[in-house]
Amino acid sequence: MAALSDPMRRRMLDELRAGEQSAGTLERALGLSQPSASKHLRALRQAGLVRVRKDAQRRLYAIDPAPLAALDVWLADYRHFWAGALDALAHHLEREV
Amino acid sequence: MAALSDPMRRRMLDELRAGEQSAGTLERALGLSQPSASKHLRALRQAGLVRVRKDAQRRLYAIDPAPLAALDVWLADYRHFWAGALDALAHHLEREV
DNA sequence: GATTTATATACCTTGATCTGCATATACAGT
DNA sequence: ACTGTATATGCAGATCAAGGTATATAAATC
Asked: In which domain, by residue range, is A50 found?
């Protein structure tokens, strides 16, 4: 989850939504220095948010959705807090009583 | 989002799912020192994740779901990565109701 | 085998963060 | 006013993340 706290890494994931991309492509798409891009990718890797595939010299990155799915599960327990006017009302009433 | 990267703060939110609670209650529930608890609550406050209400000396904290809803929106664009057709349907129905 | 291309890592510096301890603020009850 | 309770803040030190420069690894090409 800490890996997602960096905006640049979220932008990387956003880029990867279009599909597998090489480190260099991401680097240029986001205007990062080569080492910076590589380090952010390492952070995403260690968080399990991306998987890597070798293609000759290049490393092709793609989204691994598992941690995002876990986050979604975590969020699910909070969803009733904002989901719809009826839920809000229900919650309010629940408190009143 | 950085506010959520701290596990203790996530535990605080989990505690607050049960409803409004005072700083001291949270502090004891999580076994934190008083200043530590207060600082984590400040972080949550600055992130807009909680709202505070004064009750005499106590400060009663409650979840403000807005940032979590924003996170949910962000996640939505990734959901198709892990949601099989059936899951997606289930999720959709869950929201509809 | 030397060179080029693509990516990763080491090192350093800077800025942010967490914790512990001490202190300050705010309100309540006497 | 004084004491106790509840919470916040200031400061010190330790730890950790981020960016930059330089260097290392690995594969491809010649």
From this structure: 1-64
